[in-house]
Amino acid sequence: MKILVTGGLGYIGSHTCVELIKSNYDVIIVDDLSNSKEKVLDRLEQITGKRPKLYKYDLKDKSKIEEIFKENKIDAVIHFAGFKAVGESVQNPMKYYNNNLVSTINLLEVMKKYNVKNIVFSSSATIYGNVGIPKYTEEMGRGKTSNPYGTTKSMIEQILEDIYNSDNSWSISILRYFNPVGAHESGLIGEEPNGIPNNLMPYIMKVAVGELEVLNVYGNDYETEDGTGVRDYIHVVDVAEGHIKALEKLEKENNGLYIYNLGSGKGVSVLELIHTFEKVNNIKVNYKIAPRRPGDLAIYFADPSKAKRELNWETKRSVEEICRDSWNFIKNNSERKSK
Ligand code: WQD
Questions:
Q1: How far is residue 185's CA from residue 326's CA, in Å, rounded to a whole number?
Q2: Per residue in 4-26, pLDDT tens?
Q3: CA dihedral for 189, 192, 198, 203, sign (positive or negative)
Q4: Which of 35, 160, 217, 232 could anchor a disulfide with 301, C-beta 3.0 to 4.6 Å?
Q5: Residue 260 — φ and ψ, nearest 5°?
Q6: 199 CA → ligand 1 middle, Å
Q7: Given the CA of residue 292, which atom of ligand 1 is nearest to it?
Q8: In sequence order, what are the beta bridge partners of 258?
């Protein structure tokens, strides 16, 4: 089976490529390198012994997607490619609507033309909006998103649903990630966001390794056990394995539209994550309490029971393993040697 992985050199994409190769899929990557590095291809080869074919193309150029489908008999697509910085999307919404939507529409039109109707889509828990209760189930459906990035994910889910309703021969799996963190145990691939990280774990990593001075804990006055925000942190390899299970389901079922939460089902607070990181790695993380970040919710985490029931998938890796693997990655890949 030949799988086209868009954004395959990115954080979740690269970890999924490792699992695909381990599961004997033939992997082709298309990535415009806007938020990834070509050296990841070498790392994939180091980990798996296989070097996926890479097309360094922007999906906004439909003729380039056509070229890939002309040159390769693609059986299914896993679609990760897209901008994903929440803050940047608020500052520059048109960059996000143009890139994330045009890329996806181009991809789906070319897939239809070449009669490739199997797709796994990288969605996000952010599409639920402010639900008001902490545990999210798929049946809650899409809510009012709080930023253009989340809105593009919600819109793409709607596009996929409309395509399926118009043509039931499609096989579509929508995976809603909670908070993917961690890194492959080899320390060869992991999260390397461009510039100053928005998300908590990459920020902790940069402070721990001495690249950044101090971590701002955004608020300690939430209605949570220790007052800091609570989220469902899921090891990126668990997320990657969820994609293999979703692909297998599409192969088995022949067609259908499936939506799954990918989360651990457990909530962890900011301070808990910091202290676990410090304990597991025997290192100090310098932090200070700062004002709340606008738009942040106090607490949410997944109800992952549907993925367990229908995909026989659940998280296997603990928060301790997440912290160990994250530190192992950053200390091997930081511009600065760890202190
Ligand atoms: C987690 C917790 C912050 C940074 C976002 C996107 C979501 C998904 C995952 C793509 C919160 C606190 C954070 C910091 C902090 N991305 N925090 N100091 O906001 O849950 O979700 O990333 O799909 O779409 O919305 O993740 O890591 O930014 O924040 O205290 O420097 O850490 O307040 O409680 P979030 P996050």
A1: 9
A2: 999 999 999 999 999 999 999 99
A3: positive
A4: 232
A5: -135, 140
A6: 5
A7: 33
A8: 173
Q: Is the pLDDT of residue 29 over 60?
A: yes
Determine contact, residues 312/249, Cβ cutoff 8 Å. Answer: no
Please give all residues whose beta carbon lies within 6 A of any atom in ligand 1, as ranges: 84, 86, 124, 126, 150, 177, 179, 198-200, 203, 215-218, 229, 231, 270, 293, 296
Q: For the chain, list the strands marked E by DSSP.
A: 2-6, 26-30, 53-55, 76-79, 118-124, 135-136, 171-177, 179-181, 215-218, 230-231, 233-235, 256-262, 268-269, 287-290, 301-302
How close is the Cα of 274 to the center of ligand 1, in Å? 14
Catalytic-residue membership of 149 = yes
The confidence band for 334, taking pLDDT boundaries of 50, 70 and 90, is confident
Nearest to 179 by CA among 70, 326, 36: 326
Q: Which residue has the CA at smallest separation from atom 9 of ligand 1?
A: 179
| Smallest CA separation from ligand 1 atom 25, residue | 126
CA of 63 to the centre of ligand 1 (A): 36
Average pLDDT, the chain: 96
pTM above 0.70, yes or no: yes
Query: What is the DSSP-derived secondary structure letter of residue 125?
Result: G
Residue 339 pLDDT class (50, 70, 90 cuts): very low
The mean per-residue pLDDT over the stretch 122-141 comes to: 96
